[in-house]
Specification:
It contains six helices and eleven strands. Helix 2 packs antiparallel against helix 3, helix 2 crosses helix 5 and helix 4 packs antiparallel against helix 5. 28% of the residues lie in helices and 25% in strands. Among the domains are: 87 residues, no CATH class; 105 residues, Immunoglobulin-like, CATH 2.60.40. Strands 3, 4, 7, 10 and 11 form a five-stranded mixed beta sheet that branches. Strands 6-5-8-9 form a four-stranded antiparallel beta sheet. Strands 1-2 form a two-stranded antiparallel sheet.
Length: 297
Amino acid sequence: MSEQAVPRKFQRSRRPFSWIGIILGLGLGIAAGLGFAWAVSPVEQVDTEPWQLDSDARTQYMIAITLSFAYDGDLGAAINRLVSLRLPGDPVQAVADAACSLATTGYANSTSGLNAMRAMMRFYQLQGRTGCADGLIPSYDNPGTVVTIDVPTPTLTLEPPASKTPTPASDRPTPTQVLIIVPTSPPQNDFELVSVNTACDVGVIQVFVVELNGSTGIPGMEIRARWDGGESRFFTGLKPERGIGYADFQMEAGIDYLIDMPGRSDPVSRPLSAVPCTTESGARALTSYTVIFRSVS
């Protein structure tokens, strides 16, 4: 009885692994990792120092600095914040150069962009610096459209004696021109209040201003805190380690505060107050709040 022939495919030597399988596996693994990192769980920068910001974020930080200076006039604080960017050369001239770059990109086409540009210009002009934005951006506000209307204005005259002859047309009151200013754009809200959350912490109102997508912060946005007998204004972007759209306000116990973006959003629906509370560990603290405003367009 002859031995049965063994098929040739079973006589081939076996490789311990397949190069094609390894390459395919690596490719699929890299693609899945990138997809997860970009779409599912993107990296969020935390504890970022101002000098670690990229070029665009540094410019937005400068805008926030100059807007804050336009409100409080604290030159020392503004200069210290600029120095924290570790810019080469004169930090004030760097603001002028940044304004020059923005002026050539259409950044001032929006009302908020124009206000930011003017704040930058006022800041560096007061320090004796100049830039190309001086000739590209008007330094005054447009008061609106001027409409001329003819309104008859009576002229004081003595009553003429009774006569059957009609009064000549030349003796009638002559109309004079009156200028009426019509606003070019009515005020409107371009941000909406998304949420107000509470926590038992240190009595701070934390504000985040984000784009329509809800994840991208917006620096240089003015926030207003009002209370009985006073108000305070502060700006997002001055604490980049917390995010470019972040700003905060320290409350005093027993005082009610209303938070809004003046001229750009409705205020929170109820006053916020730093009332006493107890943490999970049993410690005494004050209520804190996290307020989120989102762009509507």
